[in-house]
């Protein structure tokens, strides 16, 4: 079952700390499911990591219409990806319900409106999904609530 170890780890951390725990991976899957089932996946990662992320998403009931990674290995290099490269990376001719721009270190927040305009898809990023899950977990009102 997809995410079993992740859920066990989150429960263990919550038990040890007495605080609620949110994982980015689960938050991303939940956010994507709110937009439909078919996802265009874009990551800064190497193919093996991108493939593992797609397998995780499939295990949560999502279909992957296309997937591509930037093949970046060093975390510092992910943070330095220029905006035009991020925007170009989001492009695709597949049929999808949503766009996932994965990685909490990929600079996407300021690009959200342009990503959605350019692709015609609702864009989910690791950071926006995590923030929405945190708000929901802590009782705040986030988008769509």
What does this 3D model show about the protein?
With 145 residues, this protein is of the alpha/beta class. It has one domain (24-137): 3-Layer(aba) Sandwich (Rossmann fold). Helix content is 48%, strand content 14%. It has 7 helices and 4 strands. It has helices at residues 4-17, 24-33, 47-59, 75-79, 83-90, 112-119, 126-137, and strands at 38-43, 63-69, 98-101, 123-125. A 4-stranded parallel β-sheet has the order 2-1-3-4, sandwiched between helices. Helix 6 links the parallel strand 3 and strand 4 (123-125). Helix 2 crosses helix 7 (126-137).
Q: What spatial form do the alpha-carbon principal axes imply?
A: globular
Average of per-residue pLDDT values: 93
Share of helical residues: 40-55%
Level-2 CATH architecture: 3-Layer(aba) Sandwich
Low-confidence stretches: none
């Amino acid at each position: 079952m997809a995410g079993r170890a992740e859920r066990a780890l989150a429960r263990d951390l919550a038990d040890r700390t007495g605080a609620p725990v949110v994982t980015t991976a689960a938050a991303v899957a939940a956010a994507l499911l709110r937009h439909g089932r078919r996802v265009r996946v874009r990551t800064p990662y190497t193919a093996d990591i991108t493939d593992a992320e797609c397998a995780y998403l499939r295990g949560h009931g999502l279909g992957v219409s296309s997937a591509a990674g930037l093949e970046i290995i060093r975390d510092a290099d992910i943070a330095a990806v220029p905006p035009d490269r991020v925007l170009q990376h989001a492009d695709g001719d597949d049929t999808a319900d949503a766009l996932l721009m994965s990685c909490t270190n990929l600079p996407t927040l300021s690009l959200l409106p342009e990503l959605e305009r350019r692709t015609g898809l609702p864009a989910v990023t690791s950071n926006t999904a995590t923030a929405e899950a945190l708000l929901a977990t802590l009782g705040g009102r986030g988008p769509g609530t």
